[in-house]
Design brief:
globular, STAS_dom, alpha/beta, Transcription Regulator spoIIAA, Bact_StressResp_Reg, STAS domain-containing protein, STAS_dom_sf, single chain
Length: 118
């Protein structure tokens, strides 16, 4: 089964999506990520989508739902590396990504997570 790697960085988890997301893979990522938040007692989650050219409404909802689940598990989520076309698509679809903070890149995302943890 195809899986997206989740790396631990201190009290944060880093997810770098390097493949085209399909619905089943997104659901597997959601399950894996929530399990790792609990197992690693992570306080932050950084999701890098810089390799994605397209995000459809299902994937957008999955990101938003995953962030909501992370928040319930006491972890904050920052989405980084969003391409302009992806941002345009999300706005056109009317998706607001509640509870998801965004940053331009991984470095700024880590800074944002550290600031919100203080």
């Amino acid at each position: 089964m195809e899986r997206i790697p989740i790396l631990k960085m201190g009290d944060m988890l880093l997810v770098t999506i390097q493949v085209d997301m399909h619905d089943r893979l997104a659901m597997t990522l959601q399950d894996d990520l929530t399990s790792r938040i609990v197992k690693d007692r992570a306080r932050g989650v950084l999701i890098d989508i810089s390799a994605l050219d397209i995000v459809d409404s299902f994937i957008g909802r999955m990101i938003s739902n995953t962030a909501a689940m992370a928040r319930i598990l006491d972890a904050r989520t920052v989405l980084v590396g969003m391409q302009p076309a992806v941002a345009i698509t999300l706005v056109e679809l009317g998706l607001t990504l509640h509870g998801v903070r965004t940053a331009l890149n991984v470095e700024k995302g880590v800074q944002l997570l550290k600031q919100t943890a203080e």
